[in-house]
Amino acid sequence: MSATSNPIWLTLLIAGVGSALTLLVTFATWFFRRPNLHLSISQGAPNLVTVPYRVKPDGGSNRGGQATWLRISAKNNGWRTAKGRAFLIFLCRRGDAPIIDREAIDLWASAGGDGHRHELQIPRGVVRHFDLASVLDQPSGPPKLVLPSEYFPHRWTSDLALGSYVMGAVVVGEGFDSREVWCLVETSPTATMTYRQLPNRASAEKLARA
């Protein structure tokens, strides 16, 4: 063996350290460049919007109504585009047993999204929205609370009564940590909606029992 030759163990050690550093750099690049969502429900627009809608009763002409929508803001603070979907995971009328608890009921992306059946794409620095609930002021009947989900009406066939509800939702997708948002929603017979964001699940469940 030459005096300048490295022992086999040293060669293997150098190769191993090099491989480990390569993996570490690759992981760090992925970790720090991945999407990072921040969810919020602030007061007023764009989280609360009222828009017209039209219905056509049997045998009648089009008549106007309006819908007030509560929306979740999802901002991507990461470097890569996030692709995610929102699910309702908690719904409880205050003082009653939970209607939804630790299930995952799909929610729509808001108008202007990528279609409510698809993942919503949220580029870096951009805020987009998911619909959480709405109050429909019907021209031919009393207002009602509606969840923007195709699955919910098949599981629960009766309308939701107006009142005070605690809601929780989660946004999930590939390549980023899931994020939850919790809020108290109050609806009235005059078709108005008030709300406030809650800090976490524990506070939401405590409020739901009150």
Key terms:
five-stranded antiparallel beta sheet; 19% helix; 11 strands; alpha+beta; six-stranded antiparallel beta sheet
Note down, in words, how this protein is organized:
The structure is a single chain. It is built from three helices and eleven strands; from the N terminus they run αββββββββαβββα. It is an alpha+beta fold and about 210 residues long. The protein folds into two domains: about 1-35; about 35-210, no CATH class. The strands form two sheets. Strands 4, 5, 6, 9, 10 and 11 form a six-stranded antiparallel sheet that branches. Strands 1, 2, 3, 7 and 8 form a five-stranded antiparallel sheet that branches. A hairpin with a 6-residue loop joins β7 and β8 (about 145). It is elongated, with a radius of gyration of 24 Å. The model has no long low-confidence stretch (mean pLDDT about 80).
